[in-house]
């Protein structure tokens, strides 16, 4: 009887340890994804590209405080067009990344047409 109780206690301890290990692994995986910088916000990048205003774009989450958004012009962008891009995407970026410093830049033929910085919302 003592052997059976010890065996049962041993099995319960193993199960408890396995559950804790499984939970720890899940948290570790989530932390690794969050800590993997730079991270591309594929959803927002795809949205910008589907809008068709630029040839290329990328939204890079560089770290937990800094976001770099790059628009690449379609060969005919001028400064007014770049300002229009900022006007269009600034509210989206501020909503999605309210506590990040954001650099938005518009490139045309490897030259920066316009660059603007957004600062995080203050609590």
From TrEMBL:
Keywords: Signal. Residues 1-21 form the signal peptide. It comes from the Bacteria. This is Lipoprotein. It comes from Halalkalibacter wakoensis JCM 9140.
């Amino acid at each position: 009887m003592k052997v059976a109780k010890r065996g049962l206690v041993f099995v319960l301890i193993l199960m408890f340890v396995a559950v804790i290990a499984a939970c720890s692994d899940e948290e570790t995986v989530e932390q690794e994804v969050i800590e993997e910088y730079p991270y591309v916000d594929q959803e927002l990048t795809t949205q910008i590209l589907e809008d068709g205003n630029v040839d290329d774009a990328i939204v890079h989450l560089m770290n937990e405080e800094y976001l770099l958004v790059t628009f690449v012009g379609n060969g005919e962008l001028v400064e007014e067009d770049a300002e229009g891009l900022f006007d269009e995407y600034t509210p989206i970026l501020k909503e999605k990344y309210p506590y990040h410093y954001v650099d938005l830049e518009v490139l045309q033929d490897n030259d920066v047409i316009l660059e603007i910085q957004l600062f995080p919302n203050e609590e």
